[in-house]
Design a protein that fits this description.
By secondary structure, the protein is α/β, with parallel strands linked by helices. It is built from seven helices and seven strands. A seven-stranded parallel beta sheet has the order 3-2-1-4-5-6-7, sandwiched between helices. Strand 4, helix 4 and strand 5 form a beta-alpha-beta unit.
């Protein structure tokens, strides 16, 4: 797949899924810009990838509007989010509000401000808990379902800009590095045993689908599950 000389902005592109998408887009020939609210992470990721980087906070509407007033991209991928997950009666309300503000309203603010070239695309990230709820994670399922609903509406409102969503399952990223070695392995091994594919995902698996959505001019309003069968298992 080639994205030769195509401009791609990856918001949340300094780690995890976003970094994987940024790396894959660069390897496909795109001009990549990685963005994060952390200047340190932007500097580190842009150096590792050899790409441009920009400090951008999806929680700051004025910053987003100011940035996009002077920048337009062929494709934008947004995975930036910081959420807390716990049972409804255990999760402090301020954390629940903050989680929605970060992931759902962050995506909303990006869509509201984004400048996308004709025929380009905007891709968000949800998660398979939107359709496969889990006790103790109702807040995450609700946020993800909200993003998927937002995607469908935006595909109509922002046309001809294409708007899609990727819904991952469990993905091996550095966010799990805080677990001790055995705990991390046990979690991933246990999850793999429950999936039809017999393995958990990697950022590269999500990147493959992200680039396909960018390259396919007939795709819009879709949520694509890349979860190893987790939504049906």
């Amino acid at each position: 797949m080639t994205l030769q000389n195509i401009s791609v902005l990856v918001i949340g592109g300094t780690s995890g899924i976003g970094f994987g998408v940024a790396k894959a887009a660069q390897e496909a020939g795109a001009h990549v810009t990685v963005a994060s609210r952390s200047a340190e992470k932007v500097a580190n990721a842009s150096t590792r990838l050899g790409t441009e980087g920009v400090e951008l906070d999806t929680g700051d509407a004025a910053m987003l509007e100011g940035f996009f007033a002077g920048h337009s991209f062929d494709h934008i991928f947004c995975s930036a989010a910081s959420t807390r997950v716990d049972a409804v009666r255990s999760l402090p309300l301020e954390d629940a509000y903050g989680s929605f503000d970060s992931k759902f309203w962050g995506a909303y603010r990006v869509a509201r401000a984004a400048s996308v070239s004709p025929g380009g695309s905007l891709t968000f990230v949800s998660g398979f808990l939107s359709v496969r709820p889990k006790a103790g994670a109702a807040i995450q399922g609700a946020i993800n379902a909200g993003i998927e609903g937002l995607t469908r509406g935006l595909a109509l409102e922002l046309a001809p800009t294409r708007v899609n969503c990727i819904s991952p399952g469990l993905i091996k990223t550095e966010m799990y590095d805080t677990l001790d070695g055995d705990g991390r392995k046990t979690m991933f091994d246990g999850a793999a045993e429950c999936l039809p594919v017999g393995r958990v995902g990697t950022p590269e698996n999500i990147a493959t689908q992200a680039l396909a959505l960018m390259a396919n001019p007939y795709m819009t309003g879709s949520t694509i599950f890349v979860d190893g069968g987790g939504a049906i298992a």
